[in-house]
Amino acid sequence: MPSDIIPVELIESKIFVFRGKKVMLDRDLAKLYGVLTKVLNQAVRRNQSRFPEDFMFQLTDQESQNLRSQIVTSSLEYGGRRYSPYVFTEQGVAMLSSVLKSERAIQVNIQIIRTFTRMREMLTEDEELRRKIELLEKQYDEKFVMVFDAIRRLIDEPSSNEKEIGLKY
């Protein structure tokens, strides 16, 4: 089976942030795994002890509304769900590989975990770059403070060589 059966961009577009955590919706994961959402959620319910709150949680009604407006979906796409969707954190996605045992599920899981890892690395690189820029700004700010101080002294101290302009009475 090919190592990239799903484009990384597609996976990235299915990652949302709720309650300060990057998560994926049950219906999006089900599509990626090639199973019905109902089947995915049944497998999770049968193995509830593997999915603590920091691995998976159900969106509140308000969060579901925010999600609909965030991704601009019609209510038809939700198919008249009777409950709010479940979302899975990176750890929850990793745990799904232990309850969904198809070859496709394994390959998709590997890609999803790599995507989460890549996103985390990009954030780390951004943080490191931000720190370097702040350090450079600090160094240059100190040097420019000296330049601005010198300019201020030149402006504040009248030169003794200056000729007075204007009429004298």
Account of the protein in words:
The chain is of the alpha+beta class and 169 residues long. The protein has a domain at 8-124: Mlu1-box Binding Protein, DNA-binding Domain (Roll). The protein is 59% helix and 9% strand. The protein contains six helices and four strands, in the order H-E-E-H-H-E-H-E-H-H. It has helices spanning 8-13, 26-33, 37-46, 61-71, 90-99, 103-156, and strands spanning 15-18, 21-25, 56-58, 86-88. The chain has a four-stranded antiparallel β-sheet. Strand 1 and strand 2 (21-25) form a beta hairpin. Helix 2 crosses helix 3 (37-46) and helix 5 packs antiparallel against helix 6 (103-156). The chain is elongated, with a radius of gyration of 29 Å. It starts with 7 loop residues before the first helix and ends in a 13-residue tail after the last helix. The model has no long low-confidence stretch (mean pLDDT 80).
| Oligomer designation | single chain
CATH topology of the domain at 8-124: Mlu1-box Binding Protein, DNA-binding Domain
Q: How would you describe the shape?
A: elongated
CATH architecture assignment name of the domain at 8-124: Roll
Quick structural overview:
This protein is α+β, with helices and mostly antiparallel strands and 169 residues long.
Which descriptors would you attach to this protein?
Mlu1-box Binding Protein, DNA-binding Domain; single chain; 169 residues; alpha+beta
